[in-house]
Structures are given as C-alpha cells and as structure tokens.
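Honest question from a wet-lab person: if I give you the sequences of every part of a complex, can you actually get the arrangement of the whole thing, not just the pieces? Trying it with mine:
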Amino acid sequence: MARIVAGVGCSHIPSIGAAADKGMEQDPYYKPLFDGYGPARDWIKKVAPDVVILVYNDHASAFSVDLINTFVLGVGDTFKPHDEGYGPRQVPDVIGHGELADHILESLIMDEFDMALANEMTVDHGLTVPMTVMFDKPDAWPCKVIPLCVNVIKYPQPTGNRCYNLGKALRKAVESYPEDLKVAVFGTGGMGHQLQGERAGLINQEFDQHFLNNLKDNPEELTKLSHVEYMRDAGSEGIELIMWLMMRGAMQSPSEAYRFYHVPMSNTAAGLVCYEETA
Amino acid sequence: MDKDYDDIPGTYVFDTKRCKEGFHLNKFCKSLDQAENREQFRANPDTYLDQYPMTAEQRKMINDRDWLGMLQVGGNIYYTFKLAIFDGLTMQHVGGMMSDMTVDEFKAMMLGGGRKLEGNQSKKQNQGGS
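Yes, you can. This is the full assembly:
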C-alpha cells in the first residue's frame, strides 16, 4: 500500500531558483538562505520519497486568463520547465507518475473534489523552485512528481478549509493505492508577501510565525482564516499559504523535523517546514 | 457593491471584474513567455500590440510602462511582470516604481524586514474612522 510519509511547506520564490542556477549560493545575500536549506536536504535524503505530490500554483505559465481552473492534477508522464521570459530553467524535466495520478484523480472526484486534469502542461518556478530547495541540483530528480496546481491568482481562490479537506482526500487516495510507495506532499508558496500595488513589499512576520506555530497542532484554527485576512495581514500574495494547508490536511500526526524562516528573499518571507508522519 | 478587500490600501485584488477588464492586456503580457513573440515585440512594438484589442488607456499604460496604472486597468502582477522581465527589470524595480520609491530604497526597505503592516492595514483606519 502507498503511504504518506512526509510533508513539506516551502516558499517558491523565483529568485531562489535563479540564484541556484547561476551558482550564487555563497553570495552574501543568498548564503543564509541556502545554509538554512542544508538540514532539509539532508532530511529528505533519508525520507527518500518515491513520489512527491507537489501542490503549487501556476504563474500565468501553463495557464492563462483564457481558462482558470481551481484545482488541476497533472496526470501526464513528463512536465517540462516553462519559459517564464528568460528561457526555461535548466533543470531536469519533471517525471510524473501517471498511474498513481490517475488513481488519485478518480478517488478525489468520487470523493466530490471535482478536479481538472492535465495530460500535458509545462511547470514553472512554483514547482521547480521547491524541487531545487529540497533536492539541490541533480542530473535527474530523485523521485517522481505529481503536480497539483491551485488557482491562487484570481479571486476568489479556494478557501483554506477546502484545501485542507482536499489534503485529507489526497491521503485517502494515496492509501488506497496498492503498490508500496513512499509519498511526500509538498505545499508551496508564501510566506507573507505582496508583490503588487503601493503596498508592495509588505511582510508581516508576526502572521507568518503564528502560521508556522499552529500549522502542526492547530491547523483547524488556520482553516478559518478568511480571504481578506490573508490578503490584508499576510499581503495579497500571502494567500498562497492555503497550499500549505493542503499538505497539512494530507498528514495525520506530523512531527516537525525541521523549520527555517528567513526575511527577506527578494520581496518575500521565505519559510520551510519538514514534517514526518508518525501515524 | 463594496467588497471587504477594497478597504486594503494599495492593493488591487484580481477579482472577476478586473480579470475581464484586463483580459487583452494580460494576454499581451502573457504572450511574452515565447521567445519568438519577444523578438516580434522588440522589432515592432506597435504592430505587435495591435493584435491585442486593448483600450487606449490600457495601451498607454503599457507604452508608458506605468506598472501601477496597469493594475488599475485590470492588469495582474504575474502577467505584467512578464513585460518587466522583457525590459530587464526585477520585481524589486517594479515594487519600487509602484510605490514611488527608487529600487535602492525599495531594496533597503526589504533588508529592513519589508513594508510594515502598521499604517497599511485599512483605508478606513488610516482616515481615522472605525
């Protein structure tokens, strides 16, 4: 039987990927960040997931204003990095797990989470940066990846509670898959940031710390945060944190293996948590 | 109808209305994620922009590189940022220009922990209301 063995909450700030791609990890601006990622990279090597379900958002890359889906599951076998304006990142293609993804898709829909599916799509920094954060720069990614793309750009985004419950349904789906597989769920984005408008650059460390302090033991409290609370208090793009709640929903009894928080990275607060399943 | 998020200062929530209003502007920006489109736009910006039936105001915002103005006519930051990338700018340049700061001032603010929530939480509060 497949099982969920670990969860990761991880910012997906594009400049982290750019810094890694240019070999700037020792640059004084980036060094504290990459030093902070070291223990997480050691940890994930021990966890050694066979498959990562990577919850992220597309930033006007694979999807556009033509068609906006709330939840999209990538059921294809390969996902290539998107050209976000600089040419595609020179990172390995993401190899999917089509068979497990098909199973998850059907299980979620029968559980009344009406997912859209993508047989083919490119993936942007929302997905590839967390892979870099956790796995550094291998020639090929060490695990398969099932992309789960959430609309967090166009209001109204799904509620945090919806994401949390979808995480629970993901767990049920994984646990009903017969093959022995170790699965990790990454919830990405955040933490607090606002990219747009006269309020650009807003960071609320108090909000972020409250989120980090409650995610493991009081997730239900966090699921009550409204859209306006996220946008006002964490910054308009801070609402990405609903994707961390999906990861948390997929974990039953997590223990915290590692936590790291760093301000600033570009215009954003960078956060990272690593959870192990104890159930 | 007033929305609760309209009370957040300096924030243009990309809601259904703005998404419709900015459709062509955002489609133009999005098109710059293909190298051949970037080349065409660089070679002949006006002809390239003619493919996207924007309002005169939207087109002016694009031509003026008015990053804040683009948001006010339906642009979304993830889309407009593709034009900024085309121009060789970073999110910190754009953040500074949207908030009337130089890029160095903006970077210094971020190194100091970012823009504070205090005084930036509510238009009503800032006006001394309840």
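Two things worth pointing out. Chain B has a mean pLDDT of 96. The first helix of chain B runs from residue 16 to 21.
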